[in-house]
């Protein structure tokens, strides 16, 4: 551990955890400052505070006191490459920790003032320690969702049945039909499913149904956590507007934009509700607890909220995995006879577990049939999701047409594909064929877990450029503008209408000028390179960044099996980016570890609470 990563003021137990890399400098500083303000002396309480700060930093909403050792599992290798012996750390006894917290001024307040930055909550999942802000947000989410679940919109049962029959004339069971009925009959609904299960197809039909039920004046808001996802949602819904009679003016915005976020916080909030009757949020797996809290606060009670996404994907980089929590938590809400009658035949059919029927009652429908997805890749993704490492390896090694599993040094196929894709994209770009260049650039994508290091994006960017240079004799400066240069936008630019995560390609126009082209359905967006301030070449991409997109072939570079980023959610997300073919490059150990290890995201949304320390 370098000097810069050890907090000089930290002592004793906290310092040991800091030196081992389990705690960062910021975790220690925040904990020491809070302890000082509250007049707390207990080493145990300071350690718990630092671990709670650290938990939020790594995506959890709270610290599970019964499982504090788990918090260290993602630090098995220190930055300098040495193994960290977590068992050698002075882990406190859980009871001692809990005892210290129960009387801590950080939890119960003290003579130093009313400051109570921590919240200790006894739940059915054991004691949870929160930073106050996240506890408040989680309580808001729970309160708003519970209130909305207790009250259903008025729906004309005959109109619902007739609409469903028009939109879904096929036989039972049809989960998409159930999803539309549920979205019509509930204030809050969740449409969950893997890629290509027809989530957007279903959303368009939900909107068509609501317009039939409530008339053309219905105010519809479409949103997603990122600009790229919002653009895709808008494109997919618009592609279906004519067939379904949807208005051709529907636009989608980022959640920030929907809420009117400015320097002084959001324009829409609990005191100024969003002016919509229906709000659809796509890619909800990427929505953090904080953003979900803001959105729910800003909703009118009558507004229908439809949350769409894949709960098995990587969650938001900020704290919280709200979509996964909502899908996993015990169903709440009262029965909706209108829905049950309208899709009774679907619900009576085989294939629904008891838990799923409960979820439907709570407004949650999982779409399971893949419409776009190849069966072999779908089976592989399912085996990862269901934690079946032997099955995953069997599928990887089965010699299937669409799945390749290669050792880390077996790079010929990858090299060939990188060189071939670049040649094809460049030929189309030189010829000024924008549509072909954009389509070809999405035929193959190289994905990595890390940004830096030997399994990271920057290393593979350089390797790709070298391979291309060796094959063509033309060595590109990665920052120069050249036809066929694949582009990645790294910041939203609302004026230019390009968003963080957008990908495009440089194309030579008929007059010889170079333009940057970005896919926008049938009409690509063409911009002069001088209009682009935040772009880079994209020969490789992190799996996090690839969320919300799909490619023909995906090559996944697995990191060392000890990498903390290697998790089931990461592997699932990477595999499900592939439409036609997936190539995994890595060791068996890395595959097994990836399937086994889950992202640890503690939250209390799934547990029932019984607060303590309230009166202390
Ligand atoms: N019931 C259906 N009948 C016919 N085609 C369907 C049906 N459902 C979905 N599809 C088609 O399957 C493809 C995938 O559907 P869609 O894009 O809605 O899936 P998705 O779950 O939103 O995918 P992603 O997560 O990648 O956005 C689309 O081409 C869509 O038109």
Automatic annotation (TrEMBL):
This is RecBCD enzyme subunit RecD. The keyword DNA-binding applies. CDD domains: DEXSc_RecD-like, SF1_C_RecD. It comes from Rhodococcus olei. Belongs to the RecD family. Residues 19-121 form the RecBCD enzyme subunit RecD N-terminal domain. It holds the Pfam family AAA_19. ATP binds at residues 193-200. Keywords: ATP-binding, DNA damage, DNA repair, DNA-binding, Exonuclease, Helicase, Hydrolase, Isomerase, Nuclease, Nucleotide-binding. It comes from the Bacteria.
């Amino acid at each position: 551990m370098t000097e810069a990563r050890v907090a000089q003021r930290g002592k004793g137990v906290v310092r040991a955890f800091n030196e081992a890399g389990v705690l960062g400098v910021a975790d220690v500083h925040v904990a020491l400052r809070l302890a000082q303000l509250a007049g707390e002396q207990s080493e145990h309480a300071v350690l718990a505070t630092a671990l709670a700060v650290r938990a939020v930093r790594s995506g959890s909403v709270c610290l599970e006191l019964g499982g504090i050792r788990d918090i260290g599992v993602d630090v098995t290798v220190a930055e300098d490459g040495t193994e960290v012996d977590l068992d050698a750390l002075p882990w406190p006894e859980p009871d001692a920790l809990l005892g210290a917290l129960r009387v801590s001024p950080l939890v119960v307040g003290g003579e130093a003032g009313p400051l109570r930055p921590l919240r200790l909550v006894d739940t059915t999942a054991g004691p949870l320690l929160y930073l106050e802000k996240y506890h408040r947000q989680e309580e808001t989410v729970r309160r708003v969702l519970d209130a909305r679940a207790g009250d259903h919109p008025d729906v004309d049962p005959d109109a619902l049945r007739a609409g469903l029959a028009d939109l879904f004339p096929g036989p039972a069971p049809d989960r998409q039909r159930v999803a539309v009925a549920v979205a019509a009959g509930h204030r809050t609904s969740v449409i969950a499913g893997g890629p290509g299960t027809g989530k957007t197809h279903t959303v368009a039909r939900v909107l068509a149904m609501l317009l039939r039920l409530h008339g053309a004046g219905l105010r519809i808001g479409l949103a997603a956590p990122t600009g790229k996802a919002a653009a895709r949602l808008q494109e997919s819904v618009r592609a279906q507007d004519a067939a379904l009679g949807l208005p051709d003016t529907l636009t989608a915005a980022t959640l920030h934009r929907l809420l009117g976020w400015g320097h002084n916080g959001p324009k829409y909030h609990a005191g100024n509700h969003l002016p919509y009757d229906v709000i659809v949020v796509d890619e909800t797996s990427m929505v953090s607890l904080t953003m979900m809290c803001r959105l729910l606060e800003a909703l009118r009670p009558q507004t229908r909220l439809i949350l769409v996404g894949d709960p098995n994907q990587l969650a938001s980089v900020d704290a919280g995995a709200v979509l996964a929590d909502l899908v996993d938590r015990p169903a709440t809400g009262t029965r909706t006879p209108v829905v049950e009658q309208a899709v009774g035949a679907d619900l009576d059919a085989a294939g629904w577990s008891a838990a799923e029927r409960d979820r439907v009652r709570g407004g949650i429908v999982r779409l399971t049939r893949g419409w776009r997805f190849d069966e072999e890749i779908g089976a592989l993704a399912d085996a990862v999701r269901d934690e079946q490492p032997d099955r995953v390896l069997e599928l990887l090694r089965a010699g299937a047409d669409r799945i390749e599993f290669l050792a880390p040094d077996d790079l010929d196929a990858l090299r060939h594909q990188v060189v071939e894709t670049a040649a094809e994209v460049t030929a189309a770009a030189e010829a000024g064929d924008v549509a072909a260049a954009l389509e070809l650039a999405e035929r193959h994508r190289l994905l990595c877990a890390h940004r830096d290091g030997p399994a990271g994006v920057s290393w593979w960017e350089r390797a790709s450029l070298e391979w291309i240079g060796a094959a063509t004799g033309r060595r590109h400066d990665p920052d120069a503008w050249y036809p066929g240069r694949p582009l990645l936008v790294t910041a939203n630019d609302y004026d230019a209408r390009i968003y963080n995560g957008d990908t495009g390609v440089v194309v030579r126009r008929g007059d010889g000028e170079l333009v940057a082209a970005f896919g926008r359905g049938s009409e690509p967006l063409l911009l002069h390179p001088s209009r682009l301030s935040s772009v880079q070449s994209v020969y490789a991409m992190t799996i996090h960044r690839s969320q919300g997109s799909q490619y023909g072939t995906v090559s996944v570079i697995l990191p060392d099996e000890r990498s903390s980023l290697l998790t089931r959610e990461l592997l699932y997300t990477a595999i499900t980016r592939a439409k036609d073919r997936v190539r995994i490059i890595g060791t068996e150990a890395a595959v097994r570890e990836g399937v086994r290890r889950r992202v640890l995201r503690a939250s209390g949304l799934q547990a029932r609470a019984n607060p303590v320390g309230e009166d202390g």
